[in-house]
Design brief:
The protein is mainly alpha-helical. It has a domain at 65-188. The protein has helices spanning 16-30, 37-44, 48-54, 58-84, 88-96, 103-119, 123-146, 151-170, 180-188. α1 packs across α4 (58-84) and α6 packs across α7 (123-146).
Length: 190
């Protein structure tokens, strides 16, 4: 199957999702200022006219990217973990392993960092980040609650878990400096 961001030809129609994926690629490597119509068209091997078939302007692409990121950043991750186990402790362990688990997870972390930087100067991106943070913190607090912790303690641990996930994604560690296993034991009471 061809990559969505591969150059297009007459037998491979370009859809809005391909533009969104190309936008994420540009965002991950160059920030929101790199998400521009002409460079995206060139990377996709199409003309600007293809862009306007799906989006009215660059702002519409940005809005579609934020909508897709919200979907990917919350609902898909939770459903993937939940499909593997019903045990709250095991779900939390799997969550702690996410940031460095695959090249795809590292790409997602780069996209998330770029969106968080974008959110510092854009109200729409800021709303998307706040939404994701609320969804994730609520989910993690629920899992800690399912383990029998009181609501206040579950919320505190959820916050620490979430902060540690971001740290794992953005702080370069090695065998000497990586304390993620110790952190998991501390948070999960193992």
């Amino acid at each position: 199957m061809a990559s969505r961001t591969a150059p297009q030809n007459a037998s491979t129609p370009l859809d809005a999702e391909a533009w969104i994926d190309a936008g994420f690629e540009a965002l991950a490597t160059g920030g929101i200022d790199a998400v521009r119509i002409d460079p995206l068209a060139k990377s996709l091997g199409v003309t600007r006219g293809s862009f306007y078939w799906h989006f009215t302007d660059r702002a519409a692409l940005h809005q579609a990217m934020l909508k897709e990121w919200r979907k990917r950043a919350s609902y898909r991750i939770g459903s993937r973990i939940e499909s593997r186990t019903s045990d709250a402790r095991e779900r939390l362990k799997q969550t702690l392993a996410l940031p460095n688990s695959t090249p795809r997870a590292k790409r997602a972390a780069a996209i998330e960092l770029a969106i968080r930087l974008w959110a510092l100067r854009d109200a729409q991106a800021s709303r998307a980040v706040r939404h994701i943070d609320r969804v994730r913190l609520s989910y993690y607090a629920k899992l800690f609650g399912d383990m029998g912790l009181a609501q206040a303690e579950a919320r505190r641990r959820a916050y620490l878990l979430y902060a540690s996930l971001h740290a794992q994604a953005y702080i370069a560690t090695d065998e000497e400096t990586d304390v993620s296993a110790d952190l998991a034991k501390m948070l999960l009471g193992d």
